[in-house]
Amino acid sequence: MILALMHACSNALRPREAEPAASVPCLAFRVSGHAFAVRMTRLKEIVRCGIIAVPRDKPGCVRGFYRHNQHLFPVIDLARRYSGHDTDIHDRSCLLIVTLDEAKDALQVGILAEEVGGLHEFDADDIKPLPDEARRLMNVDVLDGLVKASREYLMILAAERLLSRDEQHELRAYLDELSSS
């Protein structure tokens, strides 16, 4: 399932003929029973979750680090970050490698997902603002809104707001220090 989804995602990332500007392709995933989606423009790769290294001096904004293809990716655990408990890791767990902004040297992180759903494409008009009760339950600054997909609503993750500028700076400094030692 994961390999087929990885293949579908890599096909979705290949250049295609121009699509209408209002189209928003996303990948659905789950964390702590909650359904999220990340824009395909931010998704770089899906990898099986292996051992996450947890150094004692790691920055507080990450669960740990994952080495993949000669790169060290900070791992963001949305459950830990917003509800205080760790995401369970099992055979369907994976990391969604996403880029935080459009810059050439953009920081890439791995979002820990319990499982990956499917590919969806929405019209931008289909993404609705978050209800007030959601704003009271969690920090919704990292969400762009909600969209109905099949039988459930997906929370659209705003990767560019996943980490604050200070957290990104702290992570870059930590990664630079690791690479120089």
Automatic annotation (TrEMBL):
Residues 23-168 form the CheW-like domain. The gene is cheW. SUPFAM superfamilies: CheW-like (SSF50341). Pfam families: CheW. One of its GO terms (cellular component) is cytosol. One of its GO terms (biological process) is signal transduction. This is Purine-binding chemotaxis protein CheW.
